[in-house]
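Tip: read the tokens left to right.
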């Protein structure tokens, strides 16, 4: 990556369900940088559509990432659900490769009343299997466990960074809104954002700044963490200071704006960033 790219979370609202042809055209016309393909309800994209997305994005210099299904829990109490979760991640990575994705992300696990140390070992075991299979297939798409927004979910930024140190093609997807919600309102100032970035750089090296994948949106939260995504004007999410930190740390990669106001808030982020 040679710059920070601003991606919509799925097809723009203006595409009105007309599919990837119309959606990607709108993204290009708005001078946005790409899209995170939302496989959240299953990896469902036929071969023809995959070929179109890959060709269009390559020809128009757009960046693509993928979000895996919500039905993933690598720490399930049922072994068959762990295996199904592994398969969903593999399916996302394979589809990602087919459409030329830069990276894929997913919510990895729930604690299920187990200790963080115990859950880490379980997630590590599954990630080892996933990375081995993809490496044997020649698939080098970045695998990105995402930081999570609730205390019941495995995925603090420290946990994600630690896991990323273990595998060649694993790096974090840092959802700054989730972190803000998980810790009930902190991690929302320039210094706090810089703390996260400094920690990542110290643990993972400058590679992480040159190959970044992050999520951002307005967010509603309570004592138990994340409730809902919001548009920025209805939220206290301090996106301006975060973008200043990105500029000062020379972040390059993909920033996906997960606002309900899909393309409008993505454009808001890009325009503000370019004004700095």
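Filled-in amino acids:
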């Amino acid at each position: 990556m040679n710059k920070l790219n601003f991606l919509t979370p799925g097809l723009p609202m203006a595409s009105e369900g007309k599919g990837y042809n119309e959606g990607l055209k709108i993204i290009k016309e708005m001078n946005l940088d790409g899209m995170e393909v939302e496989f959240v309800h299953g990896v469902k994209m036929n071969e023809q559509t995959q070929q179109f997305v890959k060709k269009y994005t390559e020809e128009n210099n757009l960046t693509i990432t993928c979000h895996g299904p919500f039905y993933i829990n690598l720490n399930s109490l049922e072994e068959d659900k762990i295996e199904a979760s592994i398969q969903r991640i593999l399916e996302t990575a394979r589809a990602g490769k087919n459409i030329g994705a830069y990276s894929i992300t997913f919510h990895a696990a729930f604690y299920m009343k187990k200790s963080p140390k115990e859950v880490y070992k379980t997630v590590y075991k599954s990630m080892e299997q996933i990375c081995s299979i993809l490496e044997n297939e020649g698939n080098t798409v970045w695998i990105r466990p995402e930081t999570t927004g609730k205390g019941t979910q495995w995925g603090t930024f420290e946990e994600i960074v630690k896991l990323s140190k273990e595998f060649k093609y694993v790096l974090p997807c840092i959802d700054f809104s989730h972190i803000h919600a998980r810790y009930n309102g902190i991690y929302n100032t320039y210094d706090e954002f810089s703390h996260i970035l400094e920690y990542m750089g110290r643990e993972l090296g400058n590679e992480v700044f040159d190959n970044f994948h992050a999520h951002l949106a307005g967010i509603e939260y309570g004592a138990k963490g994340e409730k809902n995504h919001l548009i920025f004007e209805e939220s206290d999410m301090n996106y301006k200071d975060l973008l200043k930190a990105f500029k000062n740390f020379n972040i390059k990669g993909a920033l996906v704006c997960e606002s309900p106001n899909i393309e409008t808030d993505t454009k808001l982020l890009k325009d503000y960033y370019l004004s700095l």
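The mean pLDDT is 97. Residues 240 and 272 are 7 Å apart (CA to CA).
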